[in-house]
Design goal:
By secondary structure, this protein is of the alpha+beta class. The chain has 2 domains: 8-136, Response regulator (Rossmann fold, 3-Layer(aba) Sandwich); 161-394, Phosphatase 2c, domain 1 (4-Layer Sandwich), CATH 3.60.40.10. Helix content is 37%, strand content 26%. It has 10 helices and 20 strands. Strands 6-7-20-17-14-15 form a 6-stranded antiparallel beta sheet. A 5-stranded parallel beta sheet has the order 2-1-3-4-5, sandwiched between helices. The longest helix has 48 residues, at 113-160. The protein is elongated.
């Protein structure tokens, strides 16, 4: 035998002579042997020891061989046990009954030594393959655990790219919502100052999911970094660019070194904190919603092409003025395309109703309320797509 420790074989037969004959033969072939005189005794032994191979007589008082086989298969085991039924029965129906009980093989009595050895070799191959499968599964489990740890750390780092959930800027309050659908997301929201009293808001949704989208988000975070004007694409020679020039510059960068099929939708907006003047560019991102203080709800923008698809998408800027009490909502398509059981996607109208239901909420309570309302619509908090949003409440200078 090839393994270091001998295979353990359980021989079950109510005939002591048959047990002894089989046991001596098995011992000569290098197997470890344990004997049992009945199915009940064998079952008790099998509960305590994971036998590699079982040779069991069919006809025994009390528990028959097929009954013992069924009970043996029901036992919790670390590995597989190869089961051979021994019987003078040889009809096709009898063999079918034996195999249906869970037996792997069938030998007619009296047992021929050469045939028995060949069946044991077949069992050895099955056990070896099963052991190799267990080993590979263990390796896969370790790989999966390592990957899960790496993804969890990547998720933590990615979420660290998000701004503080609530930012107070005098006449304006910003609320940021970022909820990846999986371990890693393809959405990004943020802001940074571009001049005294002026800020730039951006909301990004990269096509696809997973690692590739997450790597694109990391790169975009670097391109829109708040720490260095030299690296931030919103500046040229230290001076802020118009918002439409920022979008055009990002489009050129993505097209110049594009190595895959990823593109992104973008909403980029410049806000003057002194006047409430807002200039925004929509590049394939869902229409931002302006909830006026007087109750009017406006869908802004004309859609536009995503960033990174064509050389000259022709994005146009939109100008408007915010009034005290206005609320601007910039959301990703993970909101409007969120499905509900039997109700279809949330849609634009559903998003408006959701936001009107949160009209009295502010700060983190607003973000929590949006997620709670979306969960009610979806029937679950596990959304199929990333959910991100920026809410701008304008109080007035």
């Amino acid at each position: 035998m090839s393994q270091d420790a001998p295979r353990q074989v359980l021989v079950v037969d109510d005939s002591a002579a048959q047990r002894q004959m089989l046991s001596r033969q098995l011992a000569r072939w290098g197997y470890g042997v344990v004997q049992a005189a009945s199915g009940g005794e064998a079952l008790a032994l099998a509960r305590a020891t994971d036998f590699d191979i079982v040779l069991s007589d069919w006809v025994m008082p009390g528990m028959s061989g097929p009954d013992f086989c069924r009970a043996f298969r029901a036992l919790p085991r670390a590995g597989y046990g190869y089961f051979v039924l021994l019987s003078a029965k040889s009809s096709k129906d009898d063999i079918a009954i034996g195999l249906d009980s869970g037996a792997d093989d069938f030998l007619t009595k009296p047992v021929d030594a050469t045939e028995l050895l060949s069946r044991l070799h077949a069992g050895e191959r099955i056990l070896a393959m099963q052991a190799e499968l267990r080993r590979r599964n263990a390796d896969l489990e370790r790989i999966h655990a390592d990957l899960h740890r790496d993804l969890a750390e990547a998720r933590r780092l990615q979420l660290s790219l998000a701004p503080e959930p609530v930012v107070a800027l005098g006449p304006a309050e910003l609320v940021f919502l970022l909820r990846p659908s999986g371990m890693l997301g393809g959405d990004l929201v943020g802001w940074f100052p571009i001049a005294a009293g002026r800020i730039l808001l951006f909301a990004v949704d990269v096509s696809g999911h997973g690692v590739a989208a997450a790597l694109m988000i990391a790169r975009l975070s670097a391109l829109l970094a708040t720490g260095s004007r030299d690296q931030n694409i919103a500046f040229h020679n230290g001076r802020p660019l118009p918002v439409e020039a920022v979008v055009a510059r990002l489009n050129r960068i993505l097209l110049s070194d594009r190595t895959g099929d990823l593109y992104l939708t973008l909403l980029c907006a410049e806000l003057d904190l002194a006047t409430g003047h807002l200039r925004l560019v929509q590049a394939g991102h869902p229409h931002p919603l302006l909830l006026r203080a007087d109750g009017a709800v406006l869908a802004l923008g004309e859609g536009g092409l995503p960033v990174g698809l064509v050389p000259d998408p022709g994005h146009c800027a939109l100008d408007l003025h915010l009034h005290p009490g206005d609320r601007l909502f910039i959301g990703s398509d993970g909101l409007i395309e969120c499905p509900g059981p039997g109700r279809g996607d949330l849609g634009d109208d559903g998003l408006v109703r959701l936001l009107l239901g949160q009209s009295q909420q502010r700060g983190t309570a607003l973000a929590d309320g949006v997620i709670a309302a979306l969960s009610d619509h979806a029937g679950t908090a596990d959304f199929p797509d990333d959910v991100s949003a920026i809410v701008l409440d304008w109080h007035g200078p």
